[in-house]
Design brief:
The complex is a heterodimer of chains A (about 100) and B (about 550). With about 100 residues, chain A is an all-alpha fold. Chain A has one domain. In chain A, about 70% of the residues lie in helices and about 0% in strands. Chain A is elongated, with a radius of gyration of 16 Å. An eight-stranded antiparallel sheet of chain B has the order 4-3-2-1-5-6-7-8. In chain B, a hairpin with a 6-residue loop joins β7 and β8. Chain B is globular. Chain B is an alpha+beta fold and about 550 residues long. In chain B, α1 packs parallel to α11, α2 crosses α4 and α5 crosses α7. Classes of the chains: A mainly alpha (about 100), B alpha+beta (about 550). The interface between A and B is large, with 35 and 37 residues.
Chain lengths: ~100, ~550
């Protein structure tokens, strides 16, 4: 583990990261679940479940974003995670065109 | 737990509580009342003149005659199958005009098979309570009411407040849990109560925060999912209408009893409650049959559904039929049901009523704790301490908003009952009374300051609840055109109970304001205390929670 830094407030940048990148990441994670999770993309009514679960992921991400020691770190980690998840999602979409 | 995490989340808990607490108080208190909407509506409305009931064999004739005389009914009408006090006629329909207002119509047949039609004005009291529950009374309406979006955003923060509250409690959770220290200081008592109720009802609160965010922002999330994940496929595609589909003769419509065997085959315990027919003269006719099945959770508010083709009996959609939901929908329906309390019958309705009120208590006590932690202490006898202005303002806002809304609803109920009995327009009275009482109480709390304001408004709450009981009593004594429903005595009993609770609170507030510590926003006047503090009142220790 790296040396622990004290948490800086950085309310605005962390909140923005939580709302914006939190949404992007939540939709990305839900997207992976929609394509690769049980039932595949077109399971009946799964989109309703997906919508509910993405809201929950978004809220959890938002609530935890203040644990980052600085606003910059929040943006970098959430941004990096978003890029990773979305790359996987886009790759999945290209490979499985049309859904399983 | 690291100190900086605690400090960060303490700030977050404080701020989210300050931003959302009072609006959430109104939503939770009104939400508790929504559990008993039908009862509240019946309590304020005159007993309905039920149109004669029509036996199954003549139902088809009723539909035919009603559509012939009122062609607009063919677009959408409902047949009520279960005959009870809440159902006013065997057939009803609603006509929406262009300005989005609706008129409601009831129809039946008399003994000689002549059509009887009556326009019907449903009571708006339940609507007021529901509006407060969804919006906290914030006016304005777009696709949803604006207040719904505001509350969605508030609940986003509320989720954060919940997590931060848990983080704050973790270090002392094992030690202090279920400990209610009455003896120490009043602040300790309020904090313990806030914590124990918060932790025990935490799953309920997480669920409420989550569902409200979804209720407010589901359109935006669906749009995001459709565009990005589903690559532009619409999430809820409607089947294309077949222009060559045959148009049927309304005389051949299947009545609920004729469709019952089809449904029984799917679900043996499904009790049909009502059948809503749509577009029976078009080429996509359908009928949605609502009913209940005590063994299953249902989506909302209290029924499950199955859709049939109303001429052939073909099953169009059984996704919402209790027991037929697939795995995904089952989970979604469970979440809906957990928000609405639409399972488990009357027991769960009372449990949800209590959960709603305990939620309101959490927000109220949270504000009191914030005010108390900003209290400037009197260090020695005779010293004049002036409290911070923001603590005073917050105290005024808290008592004004919270108890003002309670008094507003209670007075809307009792005044509404008198207005309907005297033939007035009770439906517009509810809104007027509520907002008038609420805004006056709020203004009063600021004008008189928190101490006097709290006592006065709590007295008003006690009297308002008492007026519910007295109105019912008076109506019973006077007799028609006033009315009293014997079956709704629990409304009066509950009102009486709360009247006593509010009276008790007012007395305690008054005592504290006069004899309690004077270095508080809850004291009548901040003046130098000449003597020692009265016996039995210890100065508050400076410990932080």
């Amino acid at each position: 583990m790296a040396r622990r830094e004290r948490i800086q407030p950085h309310w605005w940048s962390k909140s923005l990261a939580g709302v914006l990148l939190g949404f992007v990441l939540a939709i990305g994670i839900t997207g992976l679940f929609a394509w690769l999770g049980p039932g595949g993309l077109h399971a009946d009514n799964k989109i309703q479940f997906n919508m509910w679960i993405s809201a929950l992921i978004w809220m959890v991400l938002f609530a935890c974003v203040y644990l980052f020691s600085t606003g910059l770190k929040a943006w970098l980690w959430l941004g990096g995670a978003s890029i990773a998840v979305w790359s996987l999602l886009v790759a999945t979409q290209l490979l499985m065109q049309g859904g399983a | 737990m690291r100190g900086d995490i605690l400090k960060t989340y303490k700030t977050l808990h404080t701020w989210t509580g300050l931003i959302g607490g009072m609006a959430l108080f109104i939503c939770f208190f009104a939400g508790a009342l929504t559990m008993f909407k039908p009862e509240l509506d019946r309590w304020v409305s005159p007993p309905v003149q039920q149109l004669p009931w029509v036996e199954e064999s003549r139902l088809s004739l009723l539909v035919e005659k009603a559509i012939a005389e009122h062609p607009q009914a063919a677009n959408s009408f409902t047949l009520h199958v279960q005959h009870n006090e809440g159902v006013e006629a065997p057939m009803s329909w609603r006509i929406r005009s262009k300005d989005d207002s609706s008129t409601y119509w009831l129809a039946s047949l008399d003994a000689d098979n002549r059509l009887m039609v009556r326009q019907h004005e449903p009571s708006q009291l339940a609507h007021l309570v529901d509006m407060l529950h969804q919006t906290a009374g914030i006016p304005g309406e777009g696709h949803h009411m604006w207040g719904v979006y505001v509350m969605g955003a508030v609940c986003f923060l509320y989720g954060l407040a919940l997590l931060s509250g848990v983080i704050l409690l973790l270090p002392s959770l094992v030690k202090d849990f279920l400990l209610l220290r009455r003896q120490k200081t009043s602040k300790r008592f309020w904090l313990d109560a806030h914590n124990v109720i918060g932790i025990t009802s935490l799953p309920f609160h997480i669920l409420i925060a989550w569902t409200v965010v979804v209720f407010a922002f589901h359109d935006q999330i669906y749009d995001g999912l459709e565009a990005l994940v589903y690559q532009g496929e619409p999430a809820f595609a409607r089947a294309e209408a077949d222009p060559d589909a045959p148009v049927f003769n309304t005389a051949e419509l299947l009545m609920p009893t004729q469709m019952a065997p089809v449904i029984t085959k799917l679900s043996a315990n499904f009790q049909i409650y009502e059948a809503s027919y749509s577009r029976v003269q078009g080429n996509t006719p359908s009928v949605r049959i609502a009913g209940s099945d005590k063994a299953h959770m249902v989506r909302a508010p209290s029924f499950g559904f199955v859709s049939l083709q109303p001429y052939t009996g073909e099953v169009l959609d059984k996704d919402y039929l209790p027991g037929y939901e697939d795995g995904w929908l089952d989970m979604v329906i469970a979440v809906f049901a957990l928000h609405f309390g639409s399972y488990g019958g009357d027991t769960i309705r009372w449990v949800y009523f209590m959960l709603g009120l305990s939620g309101a208590f959490i927000f109220y006590s949270g504000n009191l704790l914030w005010i108390e932690s900003r209290r400037r202490k009197q260090r020695e006898a005779g010293q004049v301490v002036e409290q911070q202005k923001n603590a005073r303002l917050m105290a005024s806002a808290t008592v004004g908003v919270c108890w003002g809304s309670v008094a507003g609803v209670a007075l809307a109920m009792s005044i509404g009952k008198w207005v309907s009995a005297t033939g007035g327009d009770a439906n517009s009275a509810y809104l007027w009374v509520y907002y008038l009482v609420f805004l006056s109480a709020l203004a009063w709390a600021f004008i008189c300051g928190p101490a006097k304001g709290a006592v006065h408004i709590l007295v008003l709450c006690a009297l308002a609840c008492l007026s519910i009981v007295l109105s019912a009593l008076a109506a019973w004594l006077i007799g028609p055109p006033h009315w009293w429903h014997a079956g709704l005595a629990m409304v009066e009993v509950t009102a009486l109970l709360f009247s006593l609770i509010f009276a008790n609170m007012a007395i305690k507030m008054h005592r504290r304001a006069r004899c309690g510590p004077q270095d508080s926003v809850w004291a009548y006047a901040e003046r130098p205390v000449a003597t020692e503090l009265p016996a039995g009142i210890k100065p508050v220790s400076a410990s932080k929670p």
